């Protein structure tokens, strides 16, 4: 005697299959909800690096440019040179001033020594005047030495060198251009300073902690970068608040029914990178924070 007919077995099989599919769908939905709503994850990330804005310490015409655009350089490499003829003349003039000051001081020392050796044959007032002239000569020599050191520094600074290893970018400087003290003329990207900054919704910050493992995926690159949370920003700008008359706060009225979560920068240090992966400051990145419990 059959306990179940073939029709009932088929119906039971369809029921079990439906339950399995439903359970898998619920599990997949739960995992997606965790990934997008609970676990720290953002597509709003940027690759960043320290950019050295190279500026000359002296003004003048550019004599020569020793690098080209997108060139890799090492710390200490010559970048460009400012025409140093004027600074060489200033150095020579300062050197002459030191020589003259040295001669004047030596003469004042001899005069004072001679007047002292004469004893009572020379009035005390003359000895005192000799001492004063020596003090003045020493002060003038010290001033001339400072001017010489300044002239030497300016002459040295007419050659501009790389302060770190990196890559020259967006170079437009040419020989014959006039450069001014303190005005940047080229950018040097520090090749050892790359990091990723992810902008996370404020509601997800509770699940982010310093030293948490992180995974970074660059747009257009299937590879992954491994890193960790280095720091979390402690402040962002308040776009709805300004300063009005009498230094009183000016708060813009809002009529939004939906409040958008603020984005807070989280800095990710890069620990592992495929040598074939090219990092470019400004690249778009997807950042996922891996909870320690999931990485064990």
UniProtKB/TrEMBL annotation:
Alphabetized Pfam families for the sequence: Beta-barrel_AAEA, BSH_RND
Segments forming a coiled coil: 127-154
Entry-linked Gene3D superfamilies: 2.40.30.170, 2.40.50.100
Entry keyword annotation includes Oxidoreductase: no
Alphabetized UniProt keyword annotations: Coiled coil, Membrane, Transmembrane, Transmembrane helix
Domain of life: Bacteria
Molecular function as annotated in GO: transmembrane transporter activity
Record InterPro entries: AaeA-lik-b-barrel, MdtA-like_BSH, MFP_Efflux_Pump, RND_pump_MFP
Domain annotation Multidrug resistance protein MdtA-like barrel-sandwich hybrid: ranges: 50-188
Cellular component GO terms, alphabetical: membrane
TM region(s), chain numbering: 12-33
Keyword Zinc-finger: no
Residues in p-hydroxybenzoic acid efflux pump subunit AaeA-like beta-barrel domain copies: 193-289
PANTHER family assigned: P-HYDROXYBENZOIC ACID EFFLUX PUMP SUBUNIT AAEA, P-HYDROXYBENZOIC ACID EFFLUX PUMP SUBUNIT AAEA-RELATED
Family note: Belongs to the membrane fusion protein (MFP) (TC 8.A.1) family.
Protein name (Swiss-Prot/TrEMBL): Membrane protein
Organism the protein comes from: Advenella kashmirensis W13003
């Amino acid at each position: 005697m059959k306990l179940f007919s073939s029709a009932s077995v088929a119906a039971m099989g369809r029921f079990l299959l439906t339950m399995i599919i439903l359970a898998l769908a619920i599990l997949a939905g739960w995992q997606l909800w965790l990934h997008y709503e609970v676990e720290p994850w953002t597509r709003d990330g940027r690759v960043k690096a320290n950019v050295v804005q190279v500026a000359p310490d002296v003004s003048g015409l550019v004599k020569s440019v020793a690098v080209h655009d997108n060139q890799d350089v090492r710390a200490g490499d010559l970048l460009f040179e400012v025409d140093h003829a004027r600074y060489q003349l200033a150095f020579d003039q300062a050197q002459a001033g030191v020589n003259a000051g040295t001669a004047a001081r030596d003469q004042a020392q001899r005069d004072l020594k001679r007047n002292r050796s004469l004893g009572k044959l020379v009035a005390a007032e003359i000895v005192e005047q000799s001492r004063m002239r020596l003090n003045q000569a020493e002060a003038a020599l010290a001033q001339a030495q400072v001017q010489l050191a300044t002239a030497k520094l300016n002459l040295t600074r007419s050659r501009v060198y790389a302060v770190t290893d990196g890559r020259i970018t967006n170079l437009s400087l040419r020989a014959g251009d006039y450069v001014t003290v303190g005005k940047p003329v080229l950018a040097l990207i520090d090749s050892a300073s790359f990091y990723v900054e992810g902008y996370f919704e404020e509601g997800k910050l509770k699940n982010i902690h310093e030293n948490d493992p992180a995974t970074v995926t660059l747009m257009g690159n299937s590879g992954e970068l491994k890193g960790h949370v280095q720091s979390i920003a402690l402040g962002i700008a308040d776009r709805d608040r300004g300063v009005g008359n009498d230094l009183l706060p000016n708060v813009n009225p809002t009529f939004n029914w939906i409040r958008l979560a603020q984005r807070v920068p989280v800095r990710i240090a890069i620990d592992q990178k495929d040598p074939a992966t090219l990092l470019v400051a400004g690249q778009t990145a997807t950042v996922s924070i891996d909870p320690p419990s999931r990485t064990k």
